[in-house]
Design goal:
The longest helix has 18 residues, at about 290-310. Strands 3-9-8-7-6-4-5 form a seven-stranded mixed β-sheet, sandwiched between helices. Helix content is about 45%, strand content about 15%. The mean pLDDT is about 95. It has helices spanning about 5-15, 55-70, 85-95, 110-120, 135-145, 155-165, 185-195, 220-225, 250-260, 265, 275-290, 290-310, 330-340, 370-385, 385-400, and strands spanning about 35, 40-45, 100-105, 125-130, 145-150, 170-175, 200-205, 230-235, 245-250, 315, 320-325, 345, 345-350, 360-365. It has two domains: about 20-50 and about 290-400, Aspartate Aminotransferase, domain 1, CATH 3.90.1150; about 55-290, 3-Layer(aba) Sandwich (Aspartate Aminotransferase, domain 2). By secondary structure, it is of the alpha/beta class. The two termini are about 45 Å apart. The structure holds pyridoxal-5'-phosphate. Pyridoxal-5'-phosphate binds near residues 108, 109, 206 and 236.
Length: about 400
């Protein structure tokens, strides 16, 4: 059989289940207003939470970085690819997060694969929240350690797993802010549990970094968690920081260990130095322009108050991620399409990214949105609310006729 014939059935199955994914081509900068395939839309699905992805000051630093360091890094960090810009960014991130040292990675996916696969091995345990990001699950599986999950954000469930396990080295891994739900992990309680159980806490703060804490250092700043309490802190730079890349922050020993043993760190080309130079500018803006976090917060409140009056199933989140749970994938797609018809872009998130039966509209807000733009989204949600009723009526009719 030809390879394509072997591949086709899985594609057809996805399509039939309303789970097929298609890319859209964006032709403008990131921001609330985007041009997609020739048409203008108001977007509510980017992770550019602070509105920095197209900030001209960061662009300027990018260009200056290219002028100083050229285009590519030319090599891996260990083979002369580690530029002064990378080094300075590591120092700035360590200062900001209150950690001894930081190690840059090219992407968050690689930081998670690298950190988890280096930290534990056969005979060890990796215990993860069941709603952790795919890259954390993949990193745990790649490590070869025993892999277990606990109920979402449930400290008692995590405790139960730890007390019934006697593996050598044990790490407990969680998102700081959950990427598809928007809620925040119970970090102080998990840190306490880890100390009591002699386990080590790993937090991936991809969606908290930049947004949480007075200076934007993320969930560890918000909760005041020390390096001892959260020995392994991971953050990404492609979301609120508006550039690209990721980092692991922790002790001197942790960072030296990762430099020696984290394969996705060692065997890859360093990010272009200009990305690091641009990110340095981005950190300055994150720390000094706290109005961005304040404005974002007020938009979150405005959105939640508005949507709760409309009868949608809004998920329990105080962050920029404000998902509306829909349930069936086909219905989530219909709503997303209806909103697109109104000139609004809102992503429908379906399995396997989220558990079966929990398809949702993943609405994200940004400090770059205005109140009027949020109101436009609310008005469109109100207008198309009937799609939900339509489905419920069909279901009732179906069950009545059985
Ligand atoms: C986006 C994300 C990542 C991956 O980061 P990239 O830099 O985009 O590869 C990792 N963890 C979480 C929780 C994320 O949301």
């Amino acid at each position: 059989m030809m390879l394509d014939q072997l591949l086709q059935p899985a594609l057809q199955e996805r399509e039939a289940a309303s789970l097929y994914r298609r890319r859209r081509v964006i032709e403008s900068t990131q921001g609330p207003e985007v041009v997609v395939e020739g048409k203008s839309y108001l977007g509510f699905c980017s992770n550019d939470y602070l509105g920095l992805a197209a900030d001209p000051r960061i662009s300027k630093a990018f260009i200056a970085g290219v002028e100083k360091f050229g285009n590519g890094s030319g090599a891996s960090h260990l083979v002369l690819g580690h530029s002064a810009a990378h080094h300075q960014l590591e120092d700035a991130l360590a200062e900001m997060t209150g950690r001894d040292r930081v190690l840059l990675f090219s992407t968050g996916y690689m930081a998670n694969l690298g950190a988890l696969s280096a930290l534990v091995d056969r005979g060890d345990l990796v215990l993860e929240d069941r709603l952790n990001h795919a890259s954390l699950l993949d990193g745990g599986l790649l490590s070869g350690a025993k892999f277990k999950r606990f109920q979402h954000a449930d400290v008692a469930s995590a405790e139960q797993q730890l007390t019934s396990d006697d593996s050598g080295r044990r790490i407990l891994v969680t998102d700081g802010v959950f990427s598809m739900d928007g809620d925040i992990a119970p970090l102080p309680e998990l840190a306490e549990l880890c100390q009591k159980q002699n386990a080590h806490l790993v937090v991936d703060d991809a969606h908290g970094f930049g947004c949480l804490g007075a200076k934007g250092a993320g969930c560890v700043e918000q909760f005041g968690l020390s390096q001892q309490q959260v020995p392994v802190l991971i953050g990404t730079l492609g979301k609120a920081a508006g550039t690209a890349g990721a980092f692991v922050a922790g002790s001197e020993t942790l960072i030296e260990y990762l430099i020696q043993f984290a394969r996705p760190y060692i065997y890859t080309t360093a990010m272009p130095p200009a990305v690091a130079a641009a990110t340095l500018e981005s950190l300055k803006i994150i720390e000094s322009e706290s109005w961005r976090r304040e404005h974002l917060k007020s938009l979150i409140t405005r959105f939640r108050e508005g949507v709760s009056a409309l009868g949608y199933n809004l998920m329990d989140s105080d962050t920029a991620i404000q998902p509306i749970q829909i349930g069936e994938s086909a219905l989530a797609m219909s709503l997303s399409r209806a909103l697109e018809g109104e000139g609004l872009f809102v992503g429908a998130i379906r399995p396997p990214t989220v558990p079966q039966g929990t398809a949702r509209l993943r609405i994200t807000l940004s400090a770059a949105h205005t109140e009027a733009q949020v109101d436009r989204l609310l008005a469109a949600l109100e207008k198309h609310r009937g799609l939900l009723d339509g489905l419920n009526t069909q279901k009732l009719q179906r069950s009545a006729s059985v």
